[in-house]
Design a protein that fits this description.
Helices cover 44% and strands 14% of the residues. By secondary structure, the chain is an alpha+beta fold. It has two domains: 110 residues, no CATH class; 119 residues, no CATH class. The chain has a three-stranded antiparallel sheet with strand order 1-6-3, with no helix packed on it. A hairpin with a 4-residue loop joins strand 4 and strand 5. Helix 1 packs across helix 7, helix 2 packs across helix 7 and helix 7 packs antiparallel against helix 8. The chain is elongated.
Length: 247
C-alpha cells in the first residue's frame, strides 16, 4: 500500500501495524483518535520535522500600542526573536550611515584582497549596538498568543512593521506528507498499543473459550517502555537545531 496521505488512511495503517484485522484491537474509535492527536502534538513540539522556522510581518496598529502587546497566530509554537526596533548607533541616511562610510573608505581592501577588517569592524559595531542601545526583551506564551516587547511602545509608529522570528507548526491539513512520517507512525502505534494494554488490564484473569487469557499487563509494559525510549530519543537527538525559543 502507498504511504497514507489522510488522517483516516493513517489510522487504518496504524491499526494494521498493531495487528488488525488478524487480531482484535480492543480500542474504541474515540480512543484511537485521541492517541493520534496526542502523537501529532508531541511530534510538533519536539521533532525537527514537526515545525518550521518562519518570519512574520506585523503592521503596527493603534490597538497594538493601546493593548501593550502584538497578536500572534495560534499555530505559532514559540518566538525566538524580533528584528531590532531601537535606533542604531550605525544609523543614518545615505552618506551619513556609518557602515556606508566604512565601506567607502575601505573599498579597495574589501574588493581587492582583504575582508577580515571589514568583518571585524561590523562585528564590533554590532557589539557596540548591543551594549549601548540594547536588545528589546520579549515575552510570549503559546497558549496566550500575545507577544510582549518590553520597551516604550510610544516610540513605535502606527503603520510601521515588526518582523518576528518564530516556529510554526506543520499542519497535516495543509501538508499531507505528514501522515507518511515514519517516526510519527511508530509513535502513534505505540500510544494506541499502550491504550490497548491499559484497556485489557481491566480484564486480567478473565479466560475465554479455549483457555485463551488476556495479557494486557505485558502489552502495556512493552508499549510504555517503547514510548519512553522514543520520547527520550526525540528530546535528546531529534529536536530542531535552534530550539531555545520562548513558547
Amino acid at each position: 500500500m502507498a504511504a497514507p496521505t489522510t488522517r483516516e488512511e493513517f489510522k487504518d495503517y496504524i491499526m494494521r501495524k498493531i495487528g488488525a484485522p488478524v487480531i482484535e484491537i480492543n480500542v474504541s474509535e474515540e480512543q484511537a483518535e485521541d492517541r493520534i492527536d496526542e502523537a501529532v502534538s508531541f511530534w510538533r513540539d519536539y521533532h525537527y520535522s514537526g515545525s518550521q522556522n518562519v518570519y512574520l510581518k506585523h503592521q503596527i496598529t493603534e490597538d497594538d500600542l493601546t493593548n501593550g502587546y502584538f497578536p500572534v497566530p495560534p499555530t505559532i509554537l514559540g518566538v525566538s526573536g524580533i528584528f531590532n526596533l531601537n535606533a542604531s548607533i550605525a544609523s543614518g541616511v545615505g552618506g551619513f550611515n556609518v557602515s556606508y562610510q566604512f565601506v567607502l573608505n575601505n573599498i579597495e581592501d574589501i574588493t581587492g584582497y582583504q575582508v577580515q577588517n571589514y568583518y571585524q569592524t561590523m562585528q564590533h559595531i554590532e557589539q557596540m549596538q548591543e551594549l549601548l542601545v540594547g536588545i528589546q526583551p520579549i515575552r510570549y506564551n503559546r497558549h496566550v498568543n500575545k507577544l510582549y516587547i518590553d520597551m516604550d511602545l510610544n516610540t513605535l509608529r502606527v503603520g510601521n512593521y515588526i518582523i518576528i522570528e518564530a516556529y510554526d507548526i506543520i499542519d497535516p491539513a495543509s501538508y499531507s506528507e505528514v501522515w507518511a512520517d515514519r517516526w510519527l507512525q511508530n509513535y502513534a502505534a505505540v500510544l494506541i498499543r499502550e491504550q490497548w494494554g491499559s484497556n485489557l488490564t481491566k480484564f486480567t484473569g478473565m479466560q475465554l473459550v479455549g483457555g485463551v487469557t488476556f495479557n494486557g499487563e505485558a502489552i502495556l509494559a512493552e508499549a510504555r517502555e517503547e514510548r519512553r525510549a522514543m520520547e527520550e530519543e526525540v528530546i535528546t537527538n531529534l529536536q530542531p537545531l535552534t530550539y531555545n525559543f520562548m513558547g
